Amino acid sequence: MFELDNVMLSRLLTSLTLGFHIIFATIGVGVPLLISIAEFMGIKKKDPNYTLLARRWTRGFIILVAVGVVTGTAIGLQLSLLWPSFMQVAGNVISLPLFLETFAFFFEAIFLGAYLYTWDRFKKPIYHWFLSIPVVIGAGMSAFFITTVNSFMNTPQGFEVKDGALVNVQPLVAMFNPATPTKVFHVLSTAYLTSAAILAAITAFYIIRKRNTEYHKKALKLTVGSIFIFALLTAVAGDLSAKFLAHEQPEKLAVAEWHFETEEGADLILFGRLNEDNEVENALRLPKALSFLATGDFNGEVVGLDQFPEDEIAPLWVHYMFDLMVLIGFYSLGVSLLYLIVAKMKKWNENNKWLLWLIVFNGPLAMLAIEFGWIYAEVGRQPWILRGYMTVAEGATTSPNVGWMLLLFILLYTVLGIGVVTVLRKLFKNNPAESELERHYPEFTAKGEER
Amino acid sequence: MTYELIGITVLWIFLYGYLIVASIDFGAGFFAYYAKVTKRDHVINRLISRYLSPVWEVTNVFFVFFFVGLVGFFPDAAYYYGQTLLVPGSIAIVLIAIRGSFYAFENYGSKQSNIYLFLYGATGLLIPASLSTALTISEGGFIEETAEGVHLLTGELLTSPYSWSVVFLAIVSVLYISAAFLSFYAHRADDQGALNLVKKYALFWSSPTIIASLTTFIAMSQHNEDHFNRMMELWWVFGLSVGFFMLAIFLIYQGKYYGWAFIAVMFQFFTAFFGYGASHLPYLLYPYITLSEGVVNDAMGLALVIAFIAGLFLLIPSLILLMRMFLFDADYVKGKK
Ligand code: HDD
Ligand code: HEM
Ligand code: HEM
């Protein structure tokens, strides 16, 4: 069932690199915004707790960004090495956003360097905060540009094929294809959500470990509040993505929903399994909910898999990826809402152990949702690499040795993964926030004690 | 100017930019390790990390810019290179990944380790060696096109004198460029101890650089005579390069104008690199792809040129800001900030 030919190996290596890169890329897009918010609150409220928060987040962030940069360089080169025919077409039609992305990288890298090394260089702290804005924008722009490329793969347009040649190319039309708006929105909102979720998880973990200081409580309130906002945005963006799919790429939605027959008032199927006759068993059915998700009308018509030739249908297991992603989205929304309600009630204690553990779990779960989401988005496009134009098999390299390279990269990512974890643990273990607060802001801690 | 000429000029300028900034970085890694082994690390390593820390990411983007730009302006070249360079390209990726991340681990992660430093030094020499493969195969003779596609002739590559002379040239140039820059930086930082050491490195690595250039010329005449003849037509460009080389060595030796000396080094490589590039044309990949056949369609060409100009408006002021903060801010360089 599973043949390790060049195509399969290339797919495995691509998924490996992207699956690894997206962890760091998501943090690279989302965390600068939270750092910027924290530094701004520190300046506005004249509260060094927030400033220190920004400083410490930045210190962990820079290490993760380094891995993001090197794995990004890897995927950038690997796309040409593993999918040369695809990149030949991509170069002709969709290279504009790829090219623009490098400028976003330049912009971000330059200001990140400046931001890192100038904490105490300005007389007015607000000038240092200004340096964070280009970092936030640069990171957001790189996500935007790369996501337009991925959108193009799903709904290609802006060119014509005549006698095997690409003619009448319109770069902007290709870039702003039908998938672009919802995808960009969803990718950005989930990057911010996930980054907030991870920072909140770390903070909650510290509080459970009895580091129950004002610094940590403020950090938790800030991050969980952000989770709530971005989880709402993510739900909206996800809903729009589903409506986009129903309209432009119905086979992808149908695969995720195990929606075999075109019908009105379609049920939404949660989890379950398929028996030999492709019938759904043990699933939770939400009556007419799929029609609502797809069209905004409980009786709307949803196209099923019966409308597509069998060899153009993606693997049915992506159903689980989709369900898990959505489930985690609602989990984030629920947990953050719960925390905010408990915090509002004077009588209740929002730093209760159970609630904190729920927040801790939310961090890794959000990152998993990113992975599930991308696996769904990418596998759900199968067999196409460029939907309707080029299949994955046509795009792959023919050179030998892909298998060896796969092994090489598994080794590389293992080393990098272990390295990141070790270094981050060392960095914060011997340097708790309280003592750092005292070192950097002695006047403030002294005042705090008088109170 | 046609799109293909604009495209190749832009790419070649950025590749040249990468050659300079990355050489500084790669060479510095080797010197840092070498100084550690010879117990002189206290003299120069602080100087090195002070310059490199804020800029290493920017260095990396120069490289990314080049290969993304190549896909954009010359998609066919990207196809041939992609098909053939899987193994050397992957090795280069792994080395770059190890180097970048371990640099960050050591530098921001406050962990000093000899292994990190060794990896940092060794990769600094291996990366230029593996990247130079791309230039080597562009001379032709290392690629075979069959019905199944394009393949690299690894055996030919590993036994060719030309390919080894390029590797040798790449490595010694890296050390020479880096030492020349560090002399300038040490001079600015008023760090006499470091200056004496890196100045010695610069003078030491100058002669292998010129020898390697000569052997590469000779190997080229054996490997691709057409290209060699076109290079000979541009003899004055390479002559200029030698002139800048002598000027640079004189200035470093004399020990007053290290800034000018480094500028002379930059011109030495600028002339040589553009002389090589200009004589390489019309081929991008001999004999498969020429400039005019391999270029992207007009619509995309125009879009990329506009994007490039717009990007420069963003990039140049930001780069100036960065250089003023970390390269020309005397207090920072001296370690007072
Ligand atoms: C620039 C375009 C692009 C972008 C933004 C992404 N991908 Fe993708 N992905 C590809 C371009 C691509 C590709 C090169 O075109 C592949 C190879 C096979 C295929 O269908 O598309 C692919 C395949 C592919 C596969 C294998 C699918 C299969 O089994 O057939 C996975 C699991 C992912 N990707 C995962 C990701 C992740 C985790 C991403 C988040 C960063 C991501 N993709 C973004
Ligand atoms: C095919 C997919 C992708 C390619 C080719 C790619 C390419 C790259 C490259 C080349 C870098 C290194 C940049 C540098 O040297 O500074 C990088 C880093 C990064 N990528 Fe990706 N990327 C991909 C997917 C993504 C996705 C999906 C996102 C976001 C949603 C993303 C966001 C980032 C970020 C934030 C960085 C760090 C940039 C920096 O800090 O300089 N990437 N990527
Ligand atoms: C709240 C409910 C959610 C819904 C209804 C939803 C819906 C969707 C849909 C329909 C897609 C496919 C879009 C496409 O391929 O064109 C998608 C993809 C994706 N999802 Fe979600 N999602 C939700 C929550 C989340 C969460 C919580 C995360 C991560 C924190 C996440 C991360 C992703 C990612 C990274 C992708 C791939 C990007 C893309 O292709 O658009 N999603 N989602």
TrEMBL record, chain A:
The keyword Membrane applies. InterPro entries: Cyt-d_ubiquinol_oxidase_su_1 (IPR002585). Pfam families: Cyt_bd_oxida_I. Keywords: Cell membrane, Electron transport, Heme, Iron, Membrane, Metal-binding, Transmembrane, Transmembrane helix, Transport. Belongs to the cytochrome ubiquinol oxidase subunit 1 family. It is found in: Cell membrane. It is a multi-pass membrane protein. This is Cytochrome ubiquinol oxidase subunit I. It comes from the Bacteria. The chain crosses the membrane at residues 20-40, 61-82, 94-117, 129-153, 184-207, 219-238, 317-342, 354-377, 402-424. Its main location: membrane. It comes from Thalassobacillus devorans. The lineage of its organism: Bacteria, Bacillati, Bacillota, Bacilli, Bacillales.
TrEMBL record, chain B:
It is found in: Cell membrane. The chain crosses the membrane at residues 6-34, 55-74, 80-105, 117-137, 162-182, 202-222, 234-253, 260-279, 299-327. Its main location: membrane. The keyword Ribosomal protein does not apply. InterPro entries: Cyt-d_oxidase_su2 (IPR003317). Pfam families: Cyt_bd_oxida_II (PF02322). The keyword rRNA-binding does not apply. It comes from the Bacteria. Keywords: Cell membrane, Membrane, Transmembrane, Transmembrane helix. Belongs to the cytochrome ubiquinol oxidase subunit 2 family. This is Cytochrome D ubiquinol oxidase subunit II.
